[in-house]
Each structure stands twice: as C-alpha cells, then as structure tokens.
Amino acid sequence: MDDKLMLMIPGPTPVPEQVLLALAKHPFGHRSGEFGKLMAEVTENLKWLHQTQNDVLCLTASGTGAMEAGIINFLSPGDRVLVGCNGKFGDRWAELPEAFGLNVDKVTAEWGQPLDPEQIRAKLEADTDKQIKAVIITHSETSTGVLNDLETINRHVKAHGEALIIVDAVTSLGAVNLPIDEWGLDVVASGSQKAYMIPPGLGFVSVGPKAWEAYKTAKLPRFYLDLGKYRKDAAKNTTPFTPPVNLMVALHTALRMMKAEGLESIYGRHQRLMNATREAMKGLSLPLFAPDGFGSPAITAVAPTGVDSEKIRSVMKKRFDIVLAGGQDHLKGKIFRIGHLGFVSDRDILAAVASLEATLREVGYEGFTPGAGVAAAARVFAQS
To answer: What residues form the membrane-spanning segments (predicted)?
Structure first.
C-alpha cells in the first residue's frame, strides 16, 4: 500500500503533518522582514531547546557539517585534541581533526560499550602543561545505541581548566536532557533530521563564551562554516548565506510543537519509548547491544543470534513497510537498530514490536513466545 512507510531509524525521522504542510508553503525572500521575524522566533526557541542563553547558530549542513564547524572555528593546526571513540561517529570525529592537521589522541571503547570517564580523567590530569585544547565526545553514539556519560566526562574537562568540550549531540539533542548552560558545555552540534522532526538539511551549533574566546586566536581555515559570520548575522535575525527557507519554516513549526509539549514531557516520552523497546527485546530473547544503564533514548541496537539482521530488516520493509536501521561497518548483518526519537509515539513502538514478532516467525527464529514482546512493551506503557 502506498504512503504507509514507517521510519523507525535514527534519522531521517518521521515528520508531523503540521511540519509537512509548513514545508509546502511558497518560499519567500530570506532578506525580507518576514524571514527576519521568523528567524527571531526560531532563535529564541532554539535557545529554549538547548537550555542556553548563549548563541545557537543555524547552518545549511548535516550533523557532520555542524561538527566540522564546531571543531575548525576554535582550534589551530597542531593543537592536541582528545577524542572519545566507541562507534562509527566517534571514529569520524577522530578522522575529521586529523584532516585539518590536529594532533589526535583517542580514548577508545569496544563498539557497544560506553566510554570510560576515568580514562579521560587520567589523560587530562596527566596533561600538566595544558596541551590538550579540546575534548570531543559523542553523547549518543548512533551506530551502537550507547549513551555516553557526558556529565561525568564534562566534569573532568572542567577540572582540566584549559580544554574545550565539543559535543556531538546529533541524536541526543531534543531526546535527552542536555542542560548546556548548567553543565557549561562549550560547543554542542546537532542536526535537523533527528529529534527536531524535520527533514535533513539544517545543522545547529551552540557556542559558549569560552569557545568564543578560543575563536579569536583559532587559525584553522574557514569560510562558509565561519561561525563568527553566523553570530554577527544572527544578531540581526538573518544569515550570512542563503538558507533553506522552507526548512526554516518547518523548523519554526516543529519548535512550536516541541515547546507546547514541554522539555520534561519530551524527555520523559523518549525515556519511556526506550524502556518499552528494550523490555520488548528482552521479552523476545533478543540480546541488546548496549548494556542496561547506557542505552540511548534515541535508538536501541539489537544483536540477534541465529538469524541475519539484514534478513529481519528486509522482511520488515517488504511485509510491513517498517524501516529499521542496520549495523555499520563490521556490525553489518550482526545488529539491527530501532529508532525511537522525534515524532514517535507509544503506538509506533507497539506496531513495530508486533511486526517484528511476525517477522521473526517468518525468518525461522523460534526462541521466543509469541506476544511476549508486545506484552513487555505494554507493561512499560501502563506503568508510565
């Protein structure tokens, strides 16, 4: 049946009808008073969502573009940076500064395991001459469904005194409580196609005062991603380059929806969806890839035994029009990932779990009791 596709991946995520209708409006001039008025409200609501009084800047870019901007604006060639690597995106943030001639020191953990804050603390404490200029951390590691202990890591960075903390919050911003000002996070990057509930195309960078001080002396080349330009123009409710006007209109609508729901309710919903999904997988005797206590409210990774994950994904798509994410790199065929961030409800989880049960029977997986997954998820929802 046409138009029944259900995205249960960590991005792009489902888009509400109100937002789709906003996207369909005629574009208008990005140098007009109409756009300036819209930009002013968008900026105000972005600061609300980021829990910050500092700058939140909009880029026409993906989350990777936002992260690149968050790195190149505040560092210089040869600077030493500490990067946490426990998945595909942590690895990417090690490759990115290497491409710009930075000195990269990695703290690693096995994919599916959280970073150990003590390893980061030890490296920072050993840096007595303050050579480490930044610590780059993925909050929610999308490739594995692991939520790293950013709060503890950030405390160690603050104790260092010199280093900036640069955060990939691409799948956590808007799904996990991230009090930027309370924690004193310096740079936080995110992307529109995740919890923001709009299509891909916009990146966001929150920048604090310590990072702006570093900006004054940073020497890496930048032009289109020069955040100083965006800051200067944002103060006038405009942008230095042509923005995707219709996406900005959609963002305007989505942020209003998020504000109406409220931060506490948004975070509670994502936590409930994660708990229900994880309990459903346990009910189906499907091993979880991320350990309890470190699961991401954005996505749950599952490592089934005795059946190929790609076969499960294929049947889910062909039979039920439900799209699950696969494993990346060496995890391809070994895990599948269920996205539950953004415009996702309890009903979506129940539908996905029920369809997964039918899929497991079709692919010959017999290690579960029919109905156990739906029952486990329903118990979580009944208790919430």
So the answer is: none
